[in-house]
Amino acid sequence: MTDSLRAEAERAALRIVVSNVVARLVVSQTADPMERRELLSRINDECKLAANHALSTRAGDDQRAFTDQVFLALDEFFKGITIT
Predict the structure, then answer these.
(1) Spatial CA neighbour of 83 closest among 30, 45, 14, 27
(2) Which of 12, 46, 59, 83 is deepest in the core (most CB within 10 A)?
(3) What's residue 59's pLDDT?
(4) Nearest alpha-carbon partner for 42 in 30, 54, 55
(5) 70: Cβ contacts below 8 Å, ≥ 6 apart
């Protein structure tokens, strides 16, 4: 197994773990499906604020593109969380 394949597998496993933790947190906060969706949205927004703050020190034209990529990744991550 190559190092890049191993790193990709580790990131995938970590995404699953974090998704499950976030889902459990949301379920523990409310039983209402709409409130759960709103809470996930707020958590996503908070993650974006934190990422934007951390990335604001990065100078140049690449900063906006990089920030947009991070935001897209966060959106995809939170879309992948399903609570049944």
Answers:
(1) 27
(2) 83
(3) 64
(4) 30
(5) 48, 51, 55
In this prediction, residues 40-54 reach a mean pLDDT of 94
Provide the sign of the torsion angle of the four alpha carbons 70, 76, 9, 84, taken in this order: positive
**Residue 19 confidence (pLDDT):** 96
Distances (CA, A) of 83 to 24, 39, 43, 55, 70: 9, 12, 15, 30, 23
What pTM does this model have? 0.83
Domain ranges of the chain: 3-79
Distance CA 25, CA 80 (A): 15
Closest by CA to 39, choosing from 52, 27, 21, is 27
Q: pLDDT class for 63, splitting at 50, 70, 90?
A: confident
